[in-house]
Specification:
The protein is of the alpha/beta class. The chain has one domain. About 35% of the residues lie in helices and about 30% in strands. Strands 5-4-3-6-7 form a 5-stranded mixed beta sheet. Helix 1 packs across helix 2.
């Protein structure tokens, strides 16, 4: 899985984890939050969708860096399918990222304590969903939020879900 970084170019997920750890070790006293969000856009006859998953490292009060992965999925005929696919891609990416962070932190001996996957006090991980209390997607919010929370992540929906509704959304159209 490759991610585009506006400043570093194409990176593997392992390289994304290394970049995050390097940033974190450079400013070890800063407050960081990891955000993963996915958005999608239908194309063509409405059965092909572009999905973009964004990983955002937000340093409170100091800005953020992000990495995006784009994929094309066919035969998605309903909005419900797209919403659940967005959530699944965010969950998958979050889990793989946490595994890479744990593995890379041990390999590279970064001056950061051990990272237990998902439940780390060192990382504030949020999954951002491009759905809100208004609009067609509201009917699936409780089900999808419960699914993500059951996997150990905090969830944000619109208007607080900038990872999906702003960062990922920007790349679904290009």
């Amino acid at each position: 899985m490759l991610f585009l970084s506006p400043t570093r170019g194409m990176l593997s997920l392992e390289d994304v984890a290394y970049d995050i750890l390097r940033e974190r070790s450079t400013h070890a006293d800063a407050d960081y939050k990891l955000v993963v969000g996915t958005d999608s856009q239908l194309h063509g006859n409405g059965s092909v969708a572009t999905f973009v998953t964004a990983i955002i490292l937000h340093r409170a009060g100091r800005g953020a860096r992000y990495f995006v992965h784009k994929s094309i999925h066919e035969h998605l005929y309903s909005l419900r399918q797209r919403m659940f696919t967005e959530a699944a891609l965010s969950l998958q990416t979050s889990g793989q990222l946490m595994e890479q962070l744990q593995s890379r932190s041990q390999q590279e001996a970064f001056p950061i304590s051990h990272f237990p996957a998902r439940y780390s006090s060192e990382w504030h991980v949020e999954v951002h969903l491009d759905m809100g209390e208004r609009g067609e997607t509201k009917q699936w919010i409780r089900e999808i939020v419960a699914w993500i929370e059951a996997n150990g992540y905090e969830v944000r929906i619109k208007p607080d879900s900038y990872g999906a509704s702003t960062v990922a959304d920007r790349y679904t159209k290009h």
